[in-house]
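Sanity check record (used in CI):
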Amino acid sequence: MIGYSPAAALPAGPFRFIALDVETASRDSASICQIGIACVRADSHIETYTTYVNPEQSFAAFNTELHGIDAATVAQAPCFPEAWELLKPLLELHHLVQHSSFDSRAISAACRAYRLPNADLSWSDSVKIARRAWPEFKGNGGHGLGNLKRELGLSFQHHDAGEDARAAAQVVLLAEDQLGKSFDAISGTARKAQFNLPLGPP
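Expected output for Exonuclease domain-containing protein:
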């Protein structure tokens, strides 16, 4: 698990798209305690960046058991406004992928909690993309990352934000191959990010 490091640098774009995942300290969706991004280059190479975030609130035992993060883990980590100041400029320039709508809701909730302007982001859902690519998984474990890990032979540490972001990116890349279409064609949004680099079949 990659923690916060002041020397850590964001991957330099442009990218085809960026997958994003968050972990939270409690049932409060604003309680982000880890953010991971997986940046997909034109050749489909993936570069990840992960940072812990101090949610400035208590951790629920259930959440800590799920992802292994507690108050001691994030004691020296930036709070959300600091982390977001670093990430937001890169994210606003790219299409983003989340696995379900939880991550975008958490980002919006954290922005509201800290009275920050909501980011102007373009989101696609890799769950919906997976449903199109592998409809046969419906009722057979579904399209959650846990089942897709088994069905698609993915290797990652579930409930680590960086690992889950990479897995979501891999799902999209495999769906491109499965459907014979590019991310632009399967993203579910007509909006074009500034750094949009289509690759693969039309």
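Confidence is low (pLDDT under 50) at residues 1-7, 198-202. If this sentence no longer matches the regenerated tokens, the check is flagged for review.
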